[in-house]
């Protein structure tokens, strides 16, 4: 049995700005990080077409099976417009 692990982290900043008594704008930013998968005894390998062997094991020439992705920023925007009759709300975000 293999002892495989990875960690996932998420950070979120958000703030509301009241433009008028009835209009509120919401802006935010999210960052997510998933670390590279690890195995306790380095029993993970990958196919590397640039290698002479084709298959490379972690711990024998490489330190991880793939490079980590560290640019996972996601913007967020929203608004709340209140009237006496109709109350539309919307939130928009993009996941990269």
Notes on the structure:
The mean pLDDT is 83. By secondary structure, this protein is mainly beta. It has no helices and eight strands. The strands form three sheets. Strands 2-3-7-8 form a four-stranded antiparallel beta sheet, with no helix packed on it. A two-stranded antiparallel sheet has the order 1-4. A two-stranded antiparallel sheet has the order 5-6. It has strands at 4-5, 8-20, 23-34, 38-39, 45-47, 55-57, 73-81, 89-93. The two termini are 34 Å apart. The chain has one domain.
List the helices and strands and how they pair.
Elements: E1 4-5, E2 8-20, E3 23-34, E4 38-39, E5 45-47, E6 55-57, E7 73-81, E8 89-93
Antiparallel strand pairs: 1-4, 2-3, 3-7, 5-6, 7-8
How many domains, as an integer? Answer: 1
**Major pleated sheet:** 4 strands, antiparallel
Separate helix tally: 0
What is the helical fraction, as a range of percent? under 10%
Determine the oligomeric state from the structure.
Answer: single chain
Q: Tally the beta strands.
A: 8
Strand order of the largest sheet: 2-3-7-8
- Radius of gyration over all CA atoms, rounded: 23 Å
Summarize the structure.
The chain has 96 residues and is mostly beta strands.
Brief descriptors of the model:
single chain, 96 residues, mainly beta, 4-stranded antiparallel sheet, rod-shaped
